[in-house]
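Hi everyone,

Forwarding the result from last night's run.
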Amino acid sequence: MLIDWFTVGAQALNFLILVWLMKRFLYQPILTAIDKREKRIATEIADADKQKGEAQKERDEFQHKNEELDQQRATLLSKATDEAKALRQRLFDEARQDADVMAAKRMETLRNEEHDLQQAISRRTQQEVFAIARKALTDLATTSLEARLGEVFTRRLREMDDQAKAGLAEALKTATGPALVRSAFDLPLEQRTSIQNALNETFSAEILVQFETAPELISGIELTTHGQKVAWSIADYLVSMEKGVQELLQEKVKAEPKLEDAQPETKNQ
């Protein structure tokens, strides 16, 4: 069998030409398109990764800002709570102080009212007691209480001790005016003369005396001159009695809580 080398060469040449043509116009554009597509895909992937990173960064920043806002809110809430507690405590302390001041003022007012009432009762009691005593002495002894007080006062002038007598004598000597004798009642002439004589005899001199009426003494007589005073009054005895009564009342007040404490125990028994 004979081989036609010309035909073989022509076919080989045609194959080579076909391969070159396919490579030039088919494979190369396809490869180029594939490369471009791969680059475009790679670029898009890179852009997506970049956007994803930016989105993650923004999400982290947003979360960080939320945490900061939560922390600030907690701090402000704690501060507001502390300030509210401090304000409440301050207002409570001020209210308590105001209440204490008002209670102290009220207590002081009550003490003053109680003191005034006690004074009024004491004065009224003295007046009533003296009036009853005066009436009783007048009915029983056929003499007035005023006359008896004058006699007692005259006797006290005559019975003064040496120290009191020396002090009163010095005061009478240095006095620029007459000695003042004040009484709760208008002394009759006989009693004035008796007091005048008692002074003259006690101090061995002519003593100038001025008599005045002072109802506030309440059945009493007093002699004053240059800062010295000799006095006698039924009020002295009443003061002593009043002091004893007050002590008795105080003891009773102290004993009352004890009685109250013992009362529930008695009921239980």
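Strands lie at 179-183, 209-213, 220-225, 228-233.

Cheers,
N.
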